[in-house]
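[User]
If only I could read backbone structure tokens as easily as an amino acid sequence. I have put the entry right below:
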Amino acid sequence: MRFSQLFTLALFFAGLALTPHICLTQEKRPNGTDHSELPGEARRIRLILVQGNEKTKQDIILREMKLTQGGLLDYEELERDRLRIQNLGIFNRVEIDIVPTDTGAILVVSVSEMWYIFPYPIVFRNERDWSRISVGAGLLYTNFRGRREVIDFSGWLGFNPAIRLSYSNPWILGKAKLYTRASVFARRVRNRSFTVADSVVNENQLGFKWTVGKRFGHFIYFDLNVGYRRLTLSESGQGTTLSSSGKDNLPHFGFSFKYDSRDLWEYPHKGRFLNLWATKTGTPTGTINYLRYGFDLRKYVPIGATTLAFRTAANLSRGTIPVYEKVHFGFSTRIRGHFREKRSGDHLLLGSAEFRFPIVPITYHDWAPFQGMGQYGANLRFGVSGGIFIDTGNVWFRGNDFDSGDFNSGWGAGMHVFLPYNGLVRFEYGFDEEWNGQFIVDALVSF
């Protein structure tokens, strides 16, 4: 079977991912106790105590829990509550202990906070390419006011220089459960479509984006966004803007719908993720008038301590797409096995499947060099998992026939190293259709 045909399999697996499945394992209750068999009042949650939150407000933690004071204890829901608190991204470790009493159970939520304000140097790679390095500095406040608000002011030189100020608040207006994000930026970006053609053309961009959304329960998010960019191309790219002036003014608005039941966002073991989105740029009667829309479907099936992960995603378009709005492989989105190959188009479709398994279970350490940081240097994690993957994808231009023979596909395996402060580094080796191999070093989980 050619690897290009693996896309059919990826869609098949993704279809399975959207249907109910039978879990092959059952989590054990602590101390062999099945809380569902305890008398009603013994299962009643008498009190929830939170400790270790020197900076974080207590309600920021409690609002992530479905279990509440006065409700009945459910161990599986308790574990899901613990992971939702971990997903806040501001704790090294979260533990929930059950203290039984004659009149009910007391839940003790213990958190180990991360350090929350960082004046930091910036050294990072652009588009997952180690030859495209940027250097600068910034100030990041990850837990502003102790309410999980994030302020980030940064600037850098080198490849794609920029200056940016952003703010996000995951919960505003109390019971309304609204959230907001806003950013302003000025940047110079190397155009990817010209890069694919071995030319150097830079985009000069100035703009802002503002998002307002609502959270429905614990899993559903819907938001609207509005923004504006003013864009010009360097001299070698003049004549390719949509406006004859050589300067494109790009107002845009869009929406996003998400369903996210993943247990742990940084490295999911079970759950589903669905994202439907669309962004309209320009005006219906103007020179600039195009639409980008797409979806991202993911499913994580637990089999004991191992995980089967599936993904299919698309980024599609309608209207006349300018050169700076093409989609690409070989930059932020890559096919392992073709990791460094660059392709451009108007539409993109991809599929992936991965089997993940623990090698060295995650453990937490209080290492001597960090003890002066108090709890912010405690519970530093380390662990190693492995993965076997298949990736496939295609990009094509509007007006061209969709050809399944144009898919790039690859497969391989690697190690995933868990580091403190939610760090993850992957060391992988991938093969293409002709069994040509390549070594890959990347950050964060693949999906």
Summary: Residues 3-35 have pLDDT under 50 and may be disordered. The longest helix spans residues 6-17. Helices lie at 6-17, 58-62, 75-86, 192-196. The chain has three domains: 1-25+305-314+326-447, 34-113, 114-260.
